[in-house]
Amino acid sequence: MLKSSGFGIALFINIIIIALWHFLSYLFSAHLPGKYLHDDRPPFRIKDFENRGDFYVENFSADKWYRSLPGHPLRSEVSAAELRKKNLAQLRAVLISTCRIELWSILNCLYFICSWSLNAAYLAFILSAIVIISNFPYIICARYSRCLILNEIVNKRKELAEKAKTADNDTGFMNLYFNLN
Questions:
Q1: How would you class 124 by CB atoms within 10 Å of its CB: exposed for 0-12, middle for 13-18, buried for 19 or more?
Q2: Cα 126 → chain centroid
Q3: In this predicted structure, what is the pLDDT of residue 102?
Q4: Residue 107 to residue 22: CA distance in whole angstroms
Q5: What is the per-residue pLDDT across 45-92, written as a single tens digit (0 to 9) for each?
Q6: What gap in Å lies between CA 110 and CA 91, rounded to an integer?
Q7: Which of 8, 69, 119, 167 has the most neighbouring CB atoms within 10 Å?
Q8: Distance in angstroms (rounded) separating the CA atoms of residues 87 and 156
């Protein structure tokens, strides 16, 4: 379609298509029911090599990226201090929002299919590279944020298990004490 058009017209039409593609992918990811956004199913499952987020810190400096990305929705919510304040239900909600952000960025990257089918090879390569490179930091930050959130969920569960164990020990001791007297 755009292969025979001039560079200026093809670029203009592609910018409109990219904006529309991003808007539609946002709508899809924002309105997708939460039952499809589980951190234990692909593509959101944490892989073994991610190792509690260390992979992203060592290879991509993701701990610095997500603080400086413009418009990153999780900038204020995913910090060690903020995560400690949240209960398990709130942490699950933030975890689902990281899955939505990652899904949105992955869908944005799929624009390359449209680009390669509509454009000449040089323009398709340039536009695909720009879209993928601009969405890559958001994918990395969403993965890193998910690792931080899952670490905090594990810590909260351990904390609750210790409290329950302590409460059981206290109740067992109190029952023993009151039954003896």
A1: buried
A2: 26
A3: 87
A4: 8
A5: 888 888 778 888 888 887 777 777 766 555 556 666 777 888 888 888
A6: 29
A7: 119
A8: 8
Instruction: Return d(Cα 119, Cα 117) in angstroms, integer.
Output: 6
Neighbour count for residue 19 (Cβ, 10 Å): 10
**Is the Cβ–Cβ distance between 138 and 29 less than 8 Å?**
no
Which helix (H) or strand (E) covers residue 9, if one does? helix 7-31
Q: Identity (one letter) of the amino acid at 78?
A: V
Sign of CA dihedral 118, 17, 137, 142: negative
**Does residue 172 register a pLDDT over 60?**
no
Quickly tell me which residue has 């944490």 as its tokens. 46
Sign of the CA dihedral running 49, 52, 56, 58: negative
Q: Return d(Cα 149, Cα 36) in angstroms, integer.
A: 18
Q: Which amino acid appears at position 121 of this protein?
A: A
